[in-house]
């Protein structure tokens, strides 16, 4: 089944962009996924084809109009009623690997790309649109965010990645960062590949990798580590763990 992506944007020519190359590009030409990039301005109704207006309450910039967005969304939904409609927004929940995996398991996705100051807030409830963020920084528009989301989904689609196993051990799949990698030359500028990786002892290698993944996650991403540890030690009921004094 083809994973169908629809992107609603003021810059449809930004797509497929980098997703037309490499693994995603091949999968696109093979029909593993499809892409429809739709010009939001085509749904404007006035003679200037305006899509934005000044912010209520004053302030800088322009806001995307809810009536124009709604018509564009209705158009996309009519063609693909089962796909969730997401809007790129720094005010949304940050994307995670598990959310990406759930999206990739579905029929596709419709992505609304913001520009200027973003969307009229009423669109989210009015059209059941879910805001999603790609991280705590501000882009100039949602298009690059949409490319990020789609790239992360597409590589998970069946047949896209070469080795079937290569999706499973990645960073975040187990709630941890992945272990570090090395390749030849064994000695590079006086820095050598860790001895254990050259030992041929698969059990020892697996133990070393697990330990590295844990140490790196603890040091680099204490937020992930805390969640991982919490999930591991917390009873399923969510009851509080007993402290030493109890
Ligand atoms: N005024 C907004 C930012 C607007 S940036 C605010 O401060 O919240 C313009 C557009 O870029 C947004 O509508 C959104 O579509 C996109 N964008 C910016 N940062 C993003 C992020 N971190 N994740 C997803 N989309 C983002």
Automatic annotation (TrEMBL):
<dbReference type="Pfam" id="PF01746">
    <property type="entry name" value="tRNA_m1G_MT"/>
</dbReference>
<keyword id="KW-0949">S-adenosyl-L-methionine</keyword>
<keyword id="KW-0489">Methyltransferase</keyword>
<comment type="function">
    <text>Specifically methylates guanosine-37 in various tRNAs.</text>
</comment>
<dbReference type="InterPro" id="IPR029028">
    <property type="entry name" value="Alpha/beta_knot_MTases"/>
</dbReference>
<comment type="subunit">
    <text>Homodimer.</text>
</comment>
<dbReference type="InterPro" id="IPR016009">
    <property type="entry name" value="tRNA_MeTrfase_TRMD/TRM10"/>
</dbReference>
<feature type="binding site">
    <location>
        <begin position="134"/>
        <end position="139"/>
    </location>
    <ligand>
        <name>S-adenosyl-L-methionine</name>
    </ligand>
</feature>
<keyword id="KW-0808">Transferase</keyword>
<feature type="region of interest" description="Disordered">
    <location>
        <begin position="208"/>
        <end position="246"/>
    </location>
</feature>
<dbReference type="InterPro" id="IPR029026">
    <property type="entry name" value="tRNA_m1G_MTases_N"/>
</dbReference>
<comment type="similarity">
    <text>Belongs to the RNA methyltransferase TrmD family.</text>
</comment>
<feature type="binding site">
    <location>
        <position position="114"/>
    </location>
    <ligand>
        <name>S-adenosyl-L-methionine</name>
    </ligand>
</feature>
<dbReference type="InterPro" id="IPR002649">
    <property type="entry name" value="tRNA_m1G_MeTrfase_TrmD"/>
</dbReference>
<feature type="domain" description="tRNA methyltransferase TRMD/TRM10-type">
    <location>
        <begin position="6"/>
        <end position="226"/>
    </location>
</feature>
<feature type="compositionally biased region" description="Basic and acidic residues">
    <location>
        <begin position="211"/>
        <end position="232"/>
    </location>
</feature>
<keyword id="KW-0819">tRNA processing</keyword>
<dbReference type="InterPro" id="IPR023148">
    <property type="entry name" value="tRNA_m1G_MeTrfase_C_sf"/>
</dbReference>
<dbReference type="GO" id="GO:0032259">
    <property type="term" value="P:methylation"/>
</dbReference>
<dbReference type="GO" id="GO:0052906">
    <property type="term" value="F:tRNA (guanine(37)-N1)-methyltransferase activity"/>
</dbReference>
<protein>
    <recommendedName>
        <fullName>tRNA (guanine-N(1)-)-methyltransferase</fullName>
        <ecNumber>2.1.1.228</ecNumber>
    </recommendedName>
</protein>
<keyword id="KW-0963">Cytoplasm</keyword>
């Amino acid at each position: 089944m083809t994973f169908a992506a629809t992107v609603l944007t003021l810059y449809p020519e930004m797509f497929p962009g980098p997703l037309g190359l490499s693994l995603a590009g091949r999968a696109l030409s093979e029909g593993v996924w499809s892409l429809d990039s739709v010009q939001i301005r085509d749904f404007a109704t006035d003679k200037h084809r305006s899509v934005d207006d000044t912010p209520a309450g004053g302030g800088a910039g322009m806001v995307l109009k809810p009536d124009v967005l709604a018509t564009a969304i209705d158009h996309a939904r009519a063609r693909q009623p089962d796909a969730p409609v997401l809007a790129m927004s720094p005010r949304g929940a940050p994307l995670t690997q598990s959310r990406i995996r759930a999206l990739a398991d579905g029929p596709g996705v419709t992505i609304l790309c913001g520009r200027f100051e973003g969307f009229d807030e009423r669109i989210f409830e009015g059209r059941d649109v879910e805001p999603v963020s790609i991280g705590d920084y501000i882009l100039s528009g949602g298009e690059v965010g949409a490319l990020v989301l789609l790239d992360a989904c597409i590589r998970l689609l069946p047949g896209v990645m070469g080795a079937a196993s290569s999706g499973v051990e990645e960073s975040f799949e187990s709630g941890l960062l992945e272990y570090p990698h090395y390749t030849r030359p064994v000695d590079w500028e006086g820095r050598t590949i860790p001895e254990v990786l050259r030992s041929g002892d698969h059990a020892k290698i697996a133990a070393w990798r697990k330990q590295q993944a844990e140490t790196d996650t603890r040091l680099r991403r204490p937020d992930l580590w805390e969640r991982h540890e919490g999930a591991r030690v917390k009873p399923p009921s969510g009851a509080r763990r007993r402290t030493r004094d109890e």
